[in-house]
Design goal:
mainly alpha, 2 domains, globular, Growth Hormone, Chain: A
Length: 480
């Protein structure tokens, strides 16, 4: 495509809208709502952490595999569109399975299958801009992509979440499927791909081995986190035992240990995953590796706040799962609006005042919001939650533009794909660490004292936001 018309940027990127409507609806609305119906209150956070972790493992394997297979596709319809079509067709089947899930195990199966089908289309979709957009137009096309990725937060908040809030899960799933199919058809019918005549000879094994290396790194990080958190938490519990008693000491050990485990898992997971993928280059270019640490610290906190929010609303305001879904939808709309607004000006601010400063500001804003939410645990206030949502939304929007701009300046231009692929450690690791560790901690402490679990994990997420600012000390250079 030698010359780009204004609407070509939309047609090439339109499926990002459908993909993110589906991801947001499933992850932030459908799964928490159904878990609230199927799982006792004492185990909901743990169940969400388990489902999120298992799903992200599938995503981390399927997405790059599908992308690599599409690179090699010689289909007459093109390399990417057939995968987008097939993935969407399976999405419809598995969304229906989710809508008819009658217990936890059916929900788990449907959610994991959706992760598989979603990433069959997601991996190849990432190739459309490099395939079809000339270099001089990619900035504009990437900006359209970014907007279409953010709008679903708002869209799902005031439509799909509100349907669930009225007890109309079936219609909410139907609306999700309708957006997905519509954007898929627009992509398949309007995007013009040139078929690949000869299959590439590049190795399939090497990129997949890198993915396995990243997955192993996250696993090692999790193990290190459990060991480190257990040691520090155990020590804190032993110190507290003579003064607070056995049960209180155990609660202190779990709370402190859980927070320490998340921090250790982030740092150890990124460094081991980066070393497994990049070898000694991870040490030679330590500013890049610390950039990934910064990214994972922030995203682990942001995505986990969003994931546990419906359960927190049910506890704090003593409302039903439907009411919590509606309230969560309203918050998502507010947060999404401010993410979109700050992301749209974030690039300009980063260019004017410096990328590191903008990323630091984003972490400070999010930490401030994360600290403020603690006041609502025993003094519930929707007004305060809206203020918190605005502050975290502003911080997240600035982070999304500033952090990526910072990272692209830290990698060698001739190996940008190899290096930036390591950033998937942050995308996949965020839910695994933030929810996988935070869920059991929240349930254990909530059993000891209602609300204490949410206080502990939200305080932990506020700390992760703050530590994302500290990690920038390792990002010393901002040149290629």
């Amino acid at each position: 495509m030698s010359k780009m018309r204004w609407y070509d940027h939309i047609t090439i990127n339109i499926f990002w809208l459908g993909l993110n409507v589906r991801n947001t609806a499933v992850g932030s609305v459908f799964t928490p709502y159904l878990l609230a119906l199927f799982v006792p209150e004492s185990g909901r956070n743990t169940a969400l952490g388990f489902i999120s972790t298992a799903g992200l493992v599938i995503a981390m394997l399927v997405q790059p595999a599908a992308g690599l297979l599409s690179d090699r596709s010689t289909c007459r319809l093109g390399r990417r569109r057939p995968f987008i079509f097939v993935g969407t067709m399976f999405d419809l089947l598995f969304l229906a399975a989710l809508a008819f899930a009658g217990n936890f195990w059916m929900l788990l199966a449907a959610t994991l299958l959706i992760q598989f089908s979603a990433n069959v289309s997601h991996g190849p979709l990432q190739g459309l801009i490099p395939d079809l957009v000339p270099e001089e137009y990619r900035g504009r096309s990437s900006a359209v992509k970014a907007v279409l990725e953010l709008v679903p937060i708002i869209l799902v908040g005031f439509t799909i979440a509100q349907l669930v809030g009225k007890g109309q899960l079936g219609w909410a799933v139907f609306a999700t499927a309708a957006v997905l199919v519509t954007t898929m058809l627009l992509t398949v019918l309007l995007v013009k791909e040139r078929p690949l005549r000869e299959k590439p000879t590049a190795s399939f094994k090497i990129p997949m081995l890198r993915v396995l290396g990243m997955l192993a790194g996250i696993a090692l990080g999790g193990i290190a986190g459990v060991i480190g958190g257990g040691a520090i938490g155990g020590l804190a519990g032993l110190i507290a035992w003579p003064f607070a008693g056995q049960s209180a000491a155990a609660a202190i050990a779990v709370g402190i240990g859980g927070i320490v485990a998340m921090v250790v898992a982030v740092v150890a997971g990124v460094w081991s995953g980066a070393y497994a993928t990049l070898g000694r280059d991870a040490l030679n270019r330590s500013p890049f590796t610390w950039w990934v640490v910064n990214r994972l610290l922030f995203l682990a906190a942001a995505t986990s706040f969003q994931g546990f929010l419906p359960f927190f609303l049910m506890y704090a305001f003593d409302v039903s799962a439907e009411q919590a879904a509606s309230m969560n939808g309203n918050l998502m709309t507010v947060i999404g609006l401010f993410i979109l607004l700050s992301a749209m000006v974030g690039g300009w601010i980063a260019d004017r005042f410096g990328k590191r400063r903008v990323v630091a500001l984003s972490g400070l804003l999010a930490a401030l919001g994360g600290g403020a939410v603690l006041t609502t645990i025993w003094l519930p206030s929707m007004e305060m939650l809206y203020v918190v949502g605005i502050v975290i939304g502003l911080g997240t929007g600035l982070f999304m533009t500033g952090n990526w701009a910072l990272g692209t300046g830290l990698v060698p231009a001739e190996e940008a794909g190899r290096y930036l692929g390591v950033s998937n450690l942050a995308g996949a690791g965020a839910g695994m660490i933030g929810k996988g560790i935070g869920g059991p901690v929240a349930d254990y402490l909530n059993t000891y004292q209602p609300g204490l679990g949410y206080f502990a994990i939200f305080a932990g997420y506020a700390l992760l936001f703050a530590l994302s600012v500290v990690s920038l000390a390792g990002v010393r250079q901002t040149r290629r």
